[in-house]
Amino acid sequence: MGKAKTERRLKDNEAQAVARTLRVSPQKLNLVAGLIRGKKVGKALAELEFSRKRIASTVKKTLESAIANAENNHDLDVDSLVVAEAYVGKSIVMKRFHARGRGRSSRIEKPFSHLTIVVREVEAKEEAA
């Protein structure tokens, strides 16, 4: 028997990729995600290639995964893909301590993040707008 198939969260002309538990703060990751929002995938990949941020290479891998999902799983045209959404979520935070003077200590937080990238296929007339 089995359970009924759940409806697809995305539209038919969209595909996504998710990178979980990235060792960077959500604020820093959102700066890099903001670079590629709304851009064509070719231009977004070029921006990430030459970005000086450490996490840019991981964001690039996630974008390439979303493009591959669009091509292989959903039969979308790679040349007409646009980064529709790139959003960041909080994950766990590791707590550590740092020894300070006079027998005290201070807390160090090491945050992790999640990254979701959604690519959408657009027609030629939509790109000009």
- Name of the CATH architecture: Alpha-Beta Complex
Enumerate the strands of the largest sheet in spatial order, edge to edge or round the barrel.
1-3-2
Structural class by secondary-structure content = alpha+beta
What is the 3D form?
Answer: flat
User: How far is it from the N-terminal to the C-terminal residue, by CA?
Assistant: 48 Å
Q: In CATH's first tier, which class applies?
A: Alpha Beta
Protein name: Large ribosomal subunit protein uL22
Keywords: Ribonucleoprotein, Ribosomal protein, RNA-binding, rRNA-binding
GO cellular component, one term: cytosolic large ribosomal subunit
Family: Belongs to the universal ribosomal protein uL22 family.
Protein model, in words:
The protein is α+β, with helices and mostly antiparallel strands. The chain has one domain (14-128): Ribosomal Protein L22, Chain A. The protein has helices at residues 26-36, 41-49, 56-72, 124-128, and strands at residues 14-22, 81-99, 105-121. A 3-stranded antiparallel sheet has the order 1-3-2, covered by helices on one side. Helix 2 packs antiparallel against helix 3 (56-72). The protein is flat and about 65 Å long. It starts with 13 loop residues before the first strand and ends with a helix. The model has no long low-confidence stretch (mean pLDDT 95). Keywords: Ribonucleoprotein, Ribosomal protein, RNA-binding, rRNA-binding. The globular domain of the protein is located near the polypeptide exit tunnel on the outside of the subunit, while an extended beta-hairpin is found that lines the wall of the exit tunnel in the center of the 70S ribosome. One of its GO terms (biological process) is translation.
